[in-house]
Amino acid sequence: MNKASLYQFLAQVPDPQKKAPPELKTKVDVVLGIAAWAGTAAGVAGVLITGTMMAISLKRGESSEHMSRLGMVLGGCVLVATAGPLVKFVFT
């Protein structure tokens, strides 16, 4: 197959529209909004719970690996906060 026939073949490949139907878009936006809200709420709850556990352990005189737990929670918060822009960057 020569170059000209290859280009002609590739020119005939259909290019479908990349836009979702409006009805589906609104439903998906609602679901993603709820998921984003739940992720944010879980992150705040995780920070509060970890802080409470750190305070209780300090009062009891126990040492534990709360900083690693806090790091995991904050890492999850960063992931939730950057999920939308990250996906947009990769797929556009």
Overview of the molecule:
- The protein is mainly alpha-helical.
- It has helices at 3-11, 22-60, 66-91.
Task: Count the E strands.
Answer: 0
Helix count equals: 3
Give the overall pLDDT as a whole number: 84
Secondary-structure element sequence?
A: HHH
The proportion of strand residues reads: under 5%
Rg, Å, rounded: 24 Å
In short:
The chain has 92 residues and is mainly alpha-helical.
Please specify the SSE layout and strand pairing:
Layout: H1 3-11, H2 22-60, H3 66-91
What are the salient characteristics of this protein?
single chain, 92 residues, mainly alpha, 3 helices, elongated
